[in-house]
């Protein structure tokens, strides 16, 4: 497809993918500055006045306010993040930062998480403003840095240091919701109304250093390996919340299975099975191991990183259980921690989002769900803003969309981007 014939939302997403905004975590990142400047230039072209905040060099956040028809209504925040997780190029079918278009899809790191939503926001707002229209209420458009590191230099710093950007705002929409999944022979849209709490842990085992040839029972590597294996093999039980009960009831109604377990019902979602199964239980996945410096030296310490996602309100109980699993001789350090969220699947904004989807894909149910991961909505919650996941995409049933978050060969259908742009434009035009 010739470049000049691409829909604007596709061009925007492609251009954003071409900025390598890789975030390795822990302050090691390439930076979002160029991507933020690109967004700022686009906002300026729409007659808006972007504001930038760079708390540390190259970690750039950008926002703008759009005046609405009814300034007495609370403002709505539409936000996204500009950083992406690393991509190992040789593992991909395409250059992850080329923004290649192939087979009716846009490929590249960020096509799913979440430069697609950034583009949909920009294009939807552009639709209204260029047509001489205004949104129903004031909009705050915010594009954060550092979300893939917990928002340390992004949303967390912005809400602390630039709270005036969000003056008058009470609600927000962002990523990981509003997309379609198969449910048996039918389908549904998932609207995200909650997020699990996050705990990034470091496990540390200590022992006695010595020569690699010795009989040496006090081995930190062995002690840590045993602990990591036990934790990784732990099967956490299903624990339902109000949101996941509503989700399961809705899915059972679609697929006609009233008696299946939650995991049985998740299988009806096809490629989204694993994504849903993580929403009604704790997950504690070991993600890294560090120890030693020479083949013939037994080190005196070994460490592992663990990504723990916990249902809201269960953090302390789960932390105590992890200590029991790994044993008292393994230390647990908290590297990063944030809050869990869960709000009702009800209210005027929820009704408006459901209605916007229904006007573009009539008759398809919209179900609430609890995200197994987290978003920048957690930072906004600290200043009283209620956040939802609503990046609307009508997806092919066979596409493993949820499996591409932080995965290989991220891609999104071009027509899904156009769909999302139109749904968001209708939402902000009327809500």
Quick description:
This protein has 431 residues and is an alpha+beta fold. It has twelve helices and 21 strands.
Give an overview of the whole structure.
The protein is an alpha+beta fold and 431 residues long. The protein contains 12 helices and 21 strands. The strands form 6 sheets. The protein has a 6-stranded mixed β-sheet with strand order 3-4-8-5-9-20. The longest helix is centred in the last third of the chain and has 17 residues, at 414-430. It is globular and about 80 Å long. The two termini are 35 Å apart. The model has no long low-confidence stretch (mean pLDDT 95).
Let me know the number of strands.
21
- Helix count equals 12
Task: Identify the overall geometry.
Answer: globular
Helix content: 25-40%
Show unreliable segments. Answer: none
Rg, rounded, reads 23 Å
Distance between the ends: 35 Å
β-strand amount: 25-35%
Provide mean pLDDT, rounded: 95
User: What kind of sheet is the major sheet?
Assistant: 6 strands, mixed
Task: Please identify the structural class as seen in this structure.
Answer: alpha+beta
- The strand order across the widest sheet is 3-4-8-5-9-20
Question: What features would you highlight for this structure?
Answer:
single chain; 431 residues; alpha+beta; 4-stranded mixed β-sheet; 21 strands
Write the layout of secondary structure elements.
Elements: H1 8-17, E1 23-25, E2 28-29, H2 33-45, E3 51-53, E4 61-66, E5 75-81, E6 101-102, E7 105-107, H3 115-130, E8 139-144, H4 155-161, E9 169-174, E10 179-183, E11 186-195, E12 197-206, E13 210-211, H5 220-232, H6 242-255, H7 262-267, H8 273-277, E14 283-291, E15 297-298, E16 301-310, H9 315-326, E17 330-337, E18 341-342, H10 348-360, E19 366-371, H11 377-381, E20 386-389, E21 411-413, H12 414-430
Parallel strand pairs: 5-8, 5-9, 9-20, 11-19
Antiparallel strand pairs: 1-2, 3-4, 4-8, 6-7, 7-21, 10-11, 11-18, 12-16, 12-17, 13-15, 14-16
């Amino acid at each position: 497809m010739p470049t000049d014939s691409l829909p604007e939302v596709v061009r925007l997403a492609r251009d954003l993918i071409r900025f390598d905004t890789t975030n390795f975590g822990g302050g090691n990142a390439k930076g979002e500055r160029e991507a933020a400047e690109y967004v700022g230039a686009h906002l300026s072209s729409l007659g808006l006045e972007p504001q930038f905040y760079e708390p540390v060099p190259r970690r750039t956040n950008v926002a703008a306010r759009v005046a609405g028809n009814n300034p007495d209504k609370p403002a709505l925040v539409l936000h996204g993040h500009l950083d992406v997780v690393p991509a190992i190029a040789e593992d991909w079918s395409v250059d992850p930062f080329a923004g290649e278009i192939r087979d009716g899809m846009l490929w590249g790191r960020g096509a799913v998480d979440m430069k697609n939503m950034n583009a949909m926001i920009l294009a939807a707002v552009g639709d209204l403003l260029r047509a001489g229209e205004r949104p129903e209420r004031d909009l705050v458009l915010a594009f954060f840095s550092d979300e893939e590191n917990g928002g340390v230099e992004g949303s967390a710093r912005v809400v602390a240091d630039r709270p005036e950007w969000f003056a008058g705002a009470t609600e927000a929409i962002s990523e990981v919701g509003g997309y379609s999944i198969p449910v048996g022979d039918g389908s549904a849209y998932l609207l995200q109304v909650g997020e699990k709490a996050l705990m990034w842990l470091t496990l540390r085992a200590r022992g006695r250093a010595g020569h690699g040839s010795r009989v040496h029972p006090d081995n930190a590597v062995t002690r840590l390996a045993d602990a990591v294996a036990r934790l990784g093999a732990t099967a956490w039980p299903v624990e339902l919340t109000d949101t996941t009960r509503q989700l399961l009831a809705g899915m059972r109604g679609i697929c006609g299975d009233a008696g299946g377990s939650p995991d049985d019902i998740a299988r009806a979602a096809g490629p989204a099975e694993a994504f849903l199964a993580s929403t009604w239980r704790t997950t504690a996945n070991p993600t890294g191991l560090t120890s030693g410096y020479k083949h013939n030296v037994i080190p005196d310490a070994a460490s592992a990183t663990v990504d723990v996602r916990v249902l809201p309100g269960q953090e302390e109980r789960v932390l105590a259980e992890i200590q029991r699993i790994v044993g008292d001789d393994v230390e647990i350090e908290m590297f990063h921690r944030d809050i869990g969220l869960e709000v009702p699947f009800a209210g005027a904004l929820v009704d408006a989002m459901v209605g916007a989807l229904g006007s573009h894909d009539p008759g398809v149910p919209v179900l609430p769900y609890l995200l197994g991961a987290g978003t920048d909505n957690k930072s906004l919650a600290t200043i009283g803003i209620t956040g939802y996941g609503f990046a609307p995409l009508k997806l092919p049933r066979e596409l493993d969309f949820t499996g591409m978050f932080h995965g290989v060969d991220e891609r999104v259908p071009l027509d899904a981007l156009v769909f999302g742009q139109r749904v968001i434009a209708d939402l902000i035009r009327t809500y």
